[in-house]
Write a structure and sequence with these properties.
The chain has 127 residues and is α+β, with helices and mostly antiparallel strands. Helices cover 22% and strands 35% of the residues. The chain has 4 helices and 9 strands. The N and C termini lie far apart (32 Å).
Length: 127
């Protein structure tokens, strides 16, 4: 599965060929935040779903990133420390936050696929 999965909190997850999952925020989320000026990345190690693992500061506000699923953070995107604007420029690419080893890969099937995420965005726009 190289396709993206999404949370209702506008995070994306991608299962990579090495079995790890890469996590970032969606284009919708970065647009809502505005220009990102600082990223505090998570500590390596196990984190429970829902726990705050990262903080973004933008010209508009500070925002917490919650751990989308249970897992162990095994890598962070250190490039964001020197270039936080990468989150705005490439939210679905080089602007990723961390990679994790899932406690259970089956949890990915419970997340939103692209079509369901698009419906969520449409509902947000209609509200």
């Amino acid at each position: 599965m190289s396709e993206l999965r999404f949370t209702s909190e506008h995070e994306w997850l991608r299962l990579d060929s090495d079995g790890l999952v890469t996590v970032g925020i969606t284009a919708y989320a970065q647009e809502a935040l505005g220009d990102v000026v600082f990223v505090q990345l998570p500590e390596l190690g196990a984190h429970a779903a829902g726990a705050e693992v990262a903080v973004l500061e933008s010209v508009k506000a500070a925002s917490s990133i919650a751990m989308p699923v249970d897992g162990e953070v095994v890598e962070v995107n250190g490039a964001l420390e020197d270039a936080p604007e990468t989150v705005n420029a490439e939210p679905l690419g080089a602007g990723w936050f961390f990679r994790l080893r899932l406690a259970d890969n089956a949890v990915l099937s419970t997340l939103l696929d692209q079509a369901a995420y698009d419906r969520l965005l449409k509902a947000n726009d209609d509200a």
